[in-house]
Backbone:
């Protein structure tokens, strides 16, 4: 079946602009994660959604970052007033309710000029 | 901080077994050991996971020591396409995986 998809694959924006990144998880997966990966670094946890529970936002680096998940499926990560240090690859992953095996999308490469 | 430690880089000859070590000395009783890999410019790919027994699938084998403080991922016949960064992680009920920098494996012809 279809895997996790993300859009856009690449996004170039100017400092101060807002951006929205989209993630379509695998159908039926109740859990969804957002990560950020800077060049040459490991993955940095941002936010975790699990079913109808309140999301775990403990990884969001500032209040400029927010995410929502509508209808338990598609998720949008929004970054307001982007800064150059926000440049990174933003990865989305999903998994089934009691499974910890995460399936990753291809990522969105964000470049803030 | 990541709960695992791995060598920064390793080399392996094509066709030989690649043995990637991982230390997780603070692992809890209910935490699994997971291995993922990330090929350049792609999202991480799940390889294998285990609790305390050794595991094998079509991609690799996972050997976990009896005290569970370390494990080894074995790629039995490495190919050039196995060149990637390999991440070892531990995770339990909170499911919030903490990612380190992994091991950069270079498979050489």
Residues:
């Amino acid at each position: 079946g279809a895997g996790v998809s993300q859009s856009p694959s690449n996004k170039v924006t100017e400092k101060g602009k807002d951006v929205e990144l989209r993630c379509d998880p695998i159908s039926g997966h109740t859990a969804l994660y957002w990560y950020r990966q800077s060049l040459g670094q490991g993955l940095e946890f941002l936010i975790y959604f699990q079913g109808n529970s309140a999301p775990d936002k403990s990884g969001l680096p500032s209040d400029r970052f927010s995410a929502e998940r509508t209808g338990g499926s598609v998720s949008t990560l929004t970054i307001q007033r982007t800064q150059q240090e926000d440049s990174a690859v933003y990865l989305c992953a999903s998994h089934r309710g009691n499974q910890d095996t995460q399936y990753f999308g291809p990522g969105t490469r964000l470049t803030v000029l | 901080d990541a709960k695992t430690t791995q060598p920064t880089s390793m080399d392996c000859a094509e066709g030989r077994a690649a043995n990637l070590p991982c230390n997780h000395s603070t692992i809890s009783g209910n935490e699994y050991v997971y291995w993922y890999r990330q090929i350049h410019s792609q999202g991480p790919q799940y390889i294998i996971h285990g609790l305390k027994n050794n595991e094998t699938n079509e991609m690799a084998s996972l050997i976990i020591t009896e005290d569970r403080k370390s494990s080894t991922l074995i790629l039995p016949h490495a190919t050039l396409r196995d060149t990637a960064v390999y991440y070892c992680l531990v995770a339990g009920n909170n499911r919030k995986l903490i990612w380190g920098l992994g091991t950069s494996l270079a498979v050489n012809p």
